[in-house]
Specification:
With about 100 residues, the chain is mostly helical. The longest helix has about 35 residues. The protein is about 80% helix and about 0% strand. The radius of gyration is 25 Å and the shape is elongated.
């Protein structure tokens, strides 16, 4: 192997490694972002409403896992209330 070929080979390895490292960083970042939101169906408005609710009632949680659990409970309750209110507006509920 000539020196030029060795240098070219080394440069290609370094470039490939850089692509792998950057790809890995991007993948880990996306994974972390996804885990934070925990649900692809969660929109920004729900998160914003939850943050407002927590602030209003002084709620704090020990970590991401508990916060995610509490958010999911809050969101299910919100969906229940919204569904009930919709039924009330159409005369399907009387209270």
């Amino acid at each position: 192997m000539e020196i030029v070929e060795i240098i070219d080979y080394d440069i290609n390895i370094i470039i490939s490694m850089g692509k792998i490292e950057i790809g890995t960083i991007v993948l880990v970042t996306l994974l972390a972002f996804s885990l934070y939101h925990m649900d692809a169906g969660v929109d920004g408005q729900s998160k914003s409403l939850f943050q407002t609710w927590k602030s209003t009632y002084g709620k704090t949680y020990k970590g991401v896992e508990e916060e995610t659990y509490r958010f999911n409970v809050w969101r299910k309750n919100l969906e229940y209330v919204e569904e009930h209110n919709q039924k009330f507006m159409t005369g399907q509920e009387t209270f």
